[in-house]
Amino acid sequence: MSAELRLIKEIIQPKMVIEGAGVRLLRSFAPSRENRFDPFLLFDHFAFNDPRETPLAGFPTHPHRGIETVTYMLEGSVRHRDSLGNMGVIAAGDVQWMTSGRGILHEEMPHPSAAGRVDGFQLWVNLPAALKMSRPRYQEIQAQEIPLLEKDGFSLRVVAGEFAGVGGPVTEIAAQPIYMEVQLLPGARFELNLPAEHTLLVYLFEGQALFGGTQPVTALRMLLFEAGERLLVETGLASGARFMLMAGAPFGEPIYPYGPFVMNTMEEIQQTLAELRAGTFIQPA
């Protein structure tokens, strides 16, 4: 018996929003109590490619609690530092997977490539209740550490999870995610098997492709898929495609988001705000 094919449940057109110090973002979805994309909370596509946007804005110091933030760079770089003394640069092809846990303060400031471009994505992944107050940690992965797999007509970079026996360098994530960048040449075919109950999202940021054998989609779009065991993506002879793919196990827990915090109850958010006011939000490592 063949695996049940994943069909498109919803096509989302990203909307322009302003965050940080005037940063323009294309946002596909944001945290909400409906928690429709469990375990994923937010997906932003940021780019600073219009000369009228300079000087580059960024994300001055801000807090997080209860989530994981994932930065994936296509071009340019982001300099970061935090309240625990960590600092560094996320360059083109790099990934930073930050587990904020019980709390962290950090800033992220973009820097353009030689061509004057900054382009990348930020994904927020939820933490289950049992880990929301865990110790903060980073997994910073340089481009050369991310496996590149090239097969007939497509290539992919595996950040987390596994494909064709190739595992990504980001590990020990509660949502058991798959996170990868996939590129298809014209006339190519890509298939992925995954647990039927896992949430599956695809952000198509270049080109056009047919998903699930039924519907061609053109960039820029975020796709949410129905339950099923197999994703099928095909490109026509006229165009290739490039997309970010994310899948993970839902936690099935209620969430209460408030700005940069995502907890399970309103009382936990109130406690978080009280700690910020009292100066006890950041705890010693």
From TrEMBL:
Domain Pirin N-terminal: 31-125
Annotated cofactor note: Binds 1 Fe cation per subunit.
Cofactor: Fe cation
Residue ranges annotated for the Pirin C-terminal domain, each copy included: 179-281
InterPro entries assigned: Pirin, Pirin_C_dom, Pirin_N_dom, RmlC-like_jellyroll, RmlC_Cupin_sf
Keywords in alphabetical order: Iron, Metal-binding
Domain of life: Bacteria
GO MF annotation: an example: metal ion binding
Binding residue positions for Fe cation: H62, H64, H106, E108
Pfam families, sorted: Pirin (PF02678), Pirin_C (PF05726)
Annotated family: Belongs to the pirin family.
Stated name of the protein: Pirin family protein
Organism in which the protein naturally occurs: Bellilinea caldifistulae
